[in-house]
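Ticket 4471: requesting a sanity check on a complex prediction with adenosine-5'-tetraphosphate. Repro inputs:
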Amino acid sequence: MSSKKLVFSGVQPTGNLHLGNYLGAIKNFVSLQNDMNCVYCVVDLHAITTFQNPDELKNNILETTASFLATGLDPNKSIIFNQSSVSAHSELAWIFNCVSKVGWLNRMTQFKDKAGSDKEKASVGLYIYPNLMAADILLYKATHVPVGADQKQHLELTRDIAQKFNKDFNCKDFFPLPEPLILKNISRVMSLRDGTKKMSKSEESDYSRINLKDSSDEIVKKIKKAKSDSEPIPDNIKSLEKKPEALNLLTIYSEVSKTNLEKALIEMAGKEYSYIKGKLADLLVAEISPIGKEIVKLMNDKTHLTKILKKGSEKASIKAEENLKNIREKVGLI
Ligand code: AQP
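Returned C-alpha cells:
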C-alpha cells in the first residue's frame, strides 16, 4: 500500500448478490484493482443490523467471498476480508458514534426506507449503520469508494465525520475526504417488477431481480416477465421519463452491450420490448451464467474461501491497527 490513493468498498452478506450489486458496484471493484490499492470487505457487521439466521449468515459470508472471486477480484491484487475479523472497525465506529450527530443520522433516507413505518422497532445498529460505514472507510484512510447511487448520502456523512474529527481534534487533513466513485451510466439498477424501486436482495419477489447464481433459463424467464411498456420503444430519453420499467431495461441493455442509452435508443427505436428483451436475455446469460457457475464451484471448497478471508484479515489488520493507534492518540485514549 505505497501509493496515497486507496479504494475501499463493502458488500453485505445478506443473501444472493444480484445484477444491481454487480453492475452498480462489484464490476467497478474489479476494474479498479489493476490501477489502485484496493480493500474489499464482506461487511458482516452491517448485515446483522437486521436479524440474520446464524447458519445462513455463515454461508452468506462465504458465498459473498465466492462472488467476489467469481466476478474477477484477485486476492493477490486486492485485500479481501470480512469486517468482523478486524475488530478495529467496531472500535472506530464507537469513536465515530461520539463524533457524528443525531441530526445527521436523522436525515439518512436509507434508515427511513429500511426501518419502515415502525421506527421504534428498528435496531439501534440499523440507525447508526452509517457511522460504522464511515469507520470502515476511514480506518484505512481510503480516498475512493466505488458504490451504487443508493450509498451517496452515506458517503457524504462519512466526509462530514472526517471533517468534524479533523476539526475537533485539531488535526487538519488527518482523515482524507473520500470521493464516491458512482458509475454515470448505471448508478442504480431498478427492480424488474417496479421501476421506481431499486433492485434489492431483500425484495420478496425473486422476479424483481437477476441473481448472480440464476441459471440461464431463470435469467431468460425473468427478463421475459419483466415489466416494460405497451408502446414501441421511443427514440429519445425524454419519452421514457414516465416509464421507469422501460427505462430500466434500456439502461441495463446499454450497460451490458457496452454502449450508452442514446445509442441504444437509436438502435431500438420503433421496436417492441419483446425484441430488446430477447437481446438483453442473451447478453445477460453470456455475462452472468459463467459467474453463477463459478460461485457454485467455489462454494464446494469452503476451506479455501475461509483461508482467503483469513489471509486478507491479516493484511487488513496491519494497516487498521497502525491507523487506529494514531486515532486513539488524537482522541486522548491511553
Ligand atoms: N440496485 C442497485 N443498483 C446499483 N447498485 C446497487 N447496490 C445495491 N443495490 C444496487 C450497490 O451494491 C453494493 C453492495 O450493496 P449491499 O449489498 O452492501 O447493500 P444494499 O445497497 O442494501 O443492497 P441490497 O441488495 O438492497 O441489499 P438488502 O436488500 O439486503 O438491503 C453497494 O455499493 C450498493 O450501492
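Notes from triage: Residues 302-331 form the longest helix (30 residues). Leaving this open until the requester confirms.
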